[in-house]
Amino acid sequence: MNIRFWKVLGALASALLVTFLLRHYTAEQRRIAATFVFTVALWATEAFPLGISSLGGMVLLILVAGLDEPRAFSGLGNPIIPLYISSLILAKAMETTGLGRRIALSIMSQHWATTSPARLLFVLICITASISLFLSNTATTAMMLPLALSVLATLQQKDAHKPFAKALMLALSLGACVSVGTPIGTTPDLMAVSVLGQIAGIEIGFGKWMTFGVPITLLLMLTVWCVLGKLFNGEAPDVKAARATALLERQALGPTSHAEKVTLGVLLFAVFFWVVPDVAGQAFGHLAPELNQWIQMRLTSHAVAVTSVLLLFLIPVRGTPSGNPITWKQAAGIDWGVILLLAAGISLGNAIFSCGLAQALGVVLANALNAHTLWSITALGIGAGMLLSEFTSNSVAAAAMLPMIVGLAQSAGVSSAPPVLGTALGVSLGVVFPFSSPTNAMIYGTGLVRQRDMILTGIIIDLVGFGLIFGVLRVALPLLGMA
């Protein structure tokens, strides 16, 4: 028997165990809980490709839980899905045109970026985190890794015994993971936006998210820089040659192509109009309510994202065979498995709430953990999210955690916003083990970072990150009227 059989058997056993443990609940609640646990187990064990398990989970809501089709497939019709698809296509355009790499090399080739090892390390963290605001963590790390390896080779530091090599490699992985300044940077962030909008009735736009997301990102970037500088402060190399490497690679790219310029323009268009509704709400909310209402209704983040993708195919571009910055074949190469996971997570979450299971389990958890206040539940969500994401992907961790944490908040009679946001931000910091995230796996695969170095660094980042996330949310959300 192959390993898949045992994974499916384990998922089935988990579902049966949950059904037994919930024997005093209604039949519908037991069936939905079993479907939820079975699907999450398939995701966590990777018994099937992510998209297949996600489609299976939605079908089982019909076949096992007895839901009608509109409820079972409700996630596919959620506005978050076109927003996420569009953000992935924008990121793919940055990747295929070479815009992301050009931005990184342009910064690295500046004199001020390579005056000392500490500054070079900080610049790489900043570049990686900035790009990861719009690209996935995995794509950002994959793009930055060849550049970092070239720099190490130039500095004669490409050796597992060199402290600077370890610091530079970990800077890429950690820089990508701590980048939570926009809601499209990671799948858990979008899941949180969807859960709060649909279940709690709390809408969070780009501007509002950035109000707390950007400070958290900046503080975590500084933390990563300080921790890496402290742990790996051995012999300091002469890093001035790194600028020469960046200049050579930048020259090899040639002049900025028309496709890159158009892609940059479309990206700036998207960012500008993502932020406009929140700014307009502050500026025109009382002075011009009709104008503000028009902006809020039409310039939604979902509409802006889709419009931006349309512009990529409407604006003619010189120098490409298709006449566009990106071809449809390239655009279709985005990760559909994660998109289907997001949709399935929404459908399963809606099912858990509609049957009353989330609220009922929330009461049980609140009593068992003595978590009855807003900020104790938020702290629990951050910590549990971090812990779970160390052993499974952050998307799976968020899909499993968010419905439960909302139920816990509702059972305590407190706002769902801080616990949900804390959980989503917490799962992004699954950075302890090589298998905790694809970015860690890529860095560990270079052979330049030992497992114990990665574990020690990850534990420190998690501990400090817990305090930073909790602290920023504790200050920012009450000011935003979300707590």
Gist?
The protein has 483 residues and is mostly helical.
Low-confidence stretches: none
Number of helices: 23
Name the helix and strand elements from N-terminus to C-terminus, one letter apiece. Answer: HHHHHHHHHHHHHHHHHHHHHHH
Number of domains: 2
How many strand segments? 0
Question: What is the overall pLDDT average?
Answer: 88
Label the overall shape.
globular
Radius of gyration: 23 Å
- The computed structural class is mainly alpha
Helix content: over 70%
Report the major sheet.
Answer: none
List keywords for this structure.
single chain, 483 residues, mainly alpha, 2 domains, 73% helix
What is the element layout, followed by pairings?
Blueprint lengths: L2 H19 L5 H19 L4 H14 L5 H4 L7 H18 L1 H10 L8 H15 L5 H18 L8 H15 L9 H12 L7 H26 L8 H14 L4 H27 L4 H10 L2 H14 L13 H4 L4 H19 L2 H13 L4 H16 L4 H19 L4 H11 L10 H8 L5 H29 L4
How is this structure best described in words?
With 483 residues, this protein is mainly alpha-helical. The chain folds into 2 domains: 1-77, no CATH class; 79-483, no CATH class. The chain is built from 23 helices and no strands.
